[in-house]
Amino acid sequence: VASNPSQISKEVADRIAELITERAAEGKQAVLGLATGSTPVGVYSELVRLHRDEGLSFQNVVTFNLDEYFPMLPDELQSYVRFMREHLFDHIDIDPANVHIPDGTLAVEQVPDYCRQYELKIEEAGGIDIQLLGIGRTGHIGFNEPGSGRSTLTRLITLDRVTRVDAASDFFGAEHVPRRAITMGVGTVLGAREVIMIAFGEGKSQIVAKAIEGPITPAIPATFLQEHPNARVYLDEAAAAALT
Ligand code: F6R
Q1: Atom of ligand 1 nearest to the CA of 141
Q2: Cα(26) to centroid of ligand 1, in Å?
Q3: Alpha-carbon dihedral of residues 105, 110, 113, 116, nearest 10 degrees?
Q4: What's the pLDDT at 34?
Q5: What pLDDT is recorded for position 54?
Q6: How many angstroms separate the alpha carbon of residue 37 from the centre of ligand 1?
Q7: The ligand 1 atom nearest the CA atom of 36
Q8: Is the pTM of this model over 0.95?
Q9: Whose CA is nearest to atom 1 of ligand 1?
Q10: Which helix or strand (DSSP H or E) is residue 182 part of?
Q11: Residue 183 CA, closest ligand 1 atom number
Q12: String of DSSP letters for 53-104
């Protein structure tokens, strides 16, 4: 728990930079699982700064984003492809061929096969080294809404009403928020060798307490992180307020 969110963003960015540098020294790739939303923005701006001012290279980095709305065109305002370009990819030296973000433009019948391929690509890359996560007020990680079991994999899901309300301002009204999304599963996330979850603000305090201290249940998918051997949660004081 830290009083200053930017302290947390810096610490997390430093850990990611350390992995990238270690792997580069071994001539290996670093595989990152990435999140969107307001929470990781500071981590990405710090990674951009490390690239610009301190020579951190992303040439050996492979990324897999957690999720994308469905349907969604990559250039739309709310697209996670656009988000990642604006906050990270346009400002670093990553090879575009190494970037993976679920495709919101597919026909619905193409999605199951696409999702299997997404899992295969993660496997072929050697698995995820560090998975970055936020948490939604429903207890979702990625878009694994309540009801998502521990062995779920990448798939098309229906967004929870609360999640759509929380996204309403981005879409100029809850009625414009897509009803579905493609997301990595809980099992995909648990497969990462290291998990870093971040939450900021009072609005997250209740769900954070349940996720960390409550019983493990698919009703709150973030509770499955309690079973991960190498998961850390970074909270500002407001998000930590309901912990006992
Ligand atoms: C985003 C994602 C979501 C968000 C969560 C918190 O890729 O997978 O689980 O991390 O909804 O969103 P923010 O950070 O906007 O509060």
Answers
A1: 9
A2: 33
A3: 20
A4: 99
A5: 98
A6: 5
A7: 7
A8: yes
A9: 36
A10: strand 180-183
A11: 8
A12: HH----TTEEEEESEEEES--TTSTT-HHHHHHHHTGGGS---GGGEE---T
Ligand 1 centroid to Cα of residue 135, in Å, is 6
* ipTM at complex level: 0.99
Nearest residue (CA) to ligand 1, atom 8: 142
Catalytic residue numbers, as ranges: 145
Report in angstroms the alpha-carbon separations of 159 from 21, 138, 143, 202: 37, 10, 7, 23
Atom 9 of ligand 1: nearest residue by CA position: 142
Pocket test for ligand 1, best of 8, 9, 12, 36 (most atoms within 8 A of CB): 36
Mean pLDDT by 10 residues, the chain (244 residues): 97 98 98 98 99 98 99 98 98 98 98 99 99 99 98 98 98 98 99 99 98 98 98 98 97
Q: Rounded distance, CA 57 to CA 50, Å?
A: 9
- The CATH code of domain 5-235 reads 3.40.50.1360
**C-alpha closest to that of 130 among 53, 68, 62:** 62
List, chain by chain if needed, residues with CB within 6 Å of any ligand 1 atom. 35-39, 66-67, 134-136, 140-143
215 is written with which tokens? 């019983």
Maximal CA-CA distance, the chain: 49
58 closest CA partner among 86, 104, 17, 25: 17
Q: How far is CA 59 from CA 62, 82, 132, in A?
A: 8, 20, 19
Q: Where are the domains of the chain?
A: 5-235
Contact 204, 135 (CB under 8 A): yes
